[in-house]
Amino acid sequence: MTGCLPVAGLRCLTRDSTPRFLLTFDFDETIVDKNSDDSIVRAAPGQRLPESLRATYREVFYNRITLAELKQITWLSATGLLMVLFGECLRKAAMFTAGSNFNHVVQKEKSDTHTLVTSGVYAWFRHPSYVGWFYWSIGTQVKMCNPICGVVYALTVWRIFRDGTEEEEISLIHFFGEEYLEYKKRVPTGLPFIKGVKVEL
After folding, report:
1. Mean pLDDT calculated for residue range 123-143
2. Host domain of residue 17
3. Whole-angstrom Cα distance, residue 4 to residue 118?
4. Is there a single domain that holds both residue 63 and residue 109?
5. What integer best gives the mean pLDDT of the chain?
6. How far apart are CA 68 and CA 1, in angstroms?
7. Per-residue model confidence as pLDDT tens digits over 15-73
8. Same domain, yes or no, for 76 and 135?
9. Are residues 7 and 79 both part of a single domain?
């Protein structure tokens, strides 16, 4: 995709005429209620919100009815906000520090300008972008005091990053060899219970 041309509302066409959708959301749980302002829903593909968003906000709604006191835990909500801020700042710092070496897709071939970044936040964690996204995503559920979605998000994101870390490290070992293996020995992944790819020497 080389660019996106606005067509109507949130719908756009790529230069090859493939339809794509950009969905923005204002984090208002009433959006899932049929009596709420549903303009965002009408603009979504299939006129439905993704199930992950619906589940999150359904839980907020049910908790307000059945566990209203759960939503009144200010310290928990504040902790979630701190997790979100920490995660977002760490992820942005990782992207900024890596510069042109950062990519949202694991690279399978090393480019001429590809270098191993070990300074800045990469001196703390081997995968600071993953760590940031991990804590950001869980923090959103802690902020909203959603215990069920919080656990589901944590387990899902943990598994995604366990697999992603291993896939990325295979490429990094291939690209940088012993230099990466030494870095791997010194610096943790930053993700709980994730060591990265196992290397047999």
Report:
1. 95
2. 1-49
3. 35
4. yes
5. 79
6. 46
7. 555 554 444 444 443 444 444 445 555 556 666 666 766 666 666 666 666 666 777 78
8. yes
9. no
* Mean pLDDT across 128-139: 95
SS3 187: coil
* Distance, CA of 4 to CA of 22 (rounded, Å): 10
Which residue intervals of 20-50 are DSSP H helices? 39-43
Predicted model pTM: 0.69
**Own/partner long-range contacts of 109-113 (Cβ < 8 Å, ≥24 apart):** 110/174, 110/175
Which tokens go with 127?
Answer: 């995968």
Same domain, 128 and 152: yes
Confirm if 95 and 129 have CB atoms less than 8 A apart: yes
For the chain, what is the domain count?
Answer: 2
Identify the residue whose tokens are 């944590």: 154
The closest of 2, 20, 3 to 11, measured between CA atoms, is 20
Q: Are residues 18 and 95 in the same domain?
A: no
Q: Confirm if 173 and 199 have CB atoms less than 8 A apart.
A: yes
Burial class (CB in 10 A: 0-12, 13-18, 19+), 100: exposed
pLDDT digits (tens, 9 = 90+) for 86-131: 999 999 999 999 999 998 888 899 999 999 999 999 999 999 999 9
C-alpha torsion angle, residues 39, 43, 45, 50 (rounded to 10):
-40
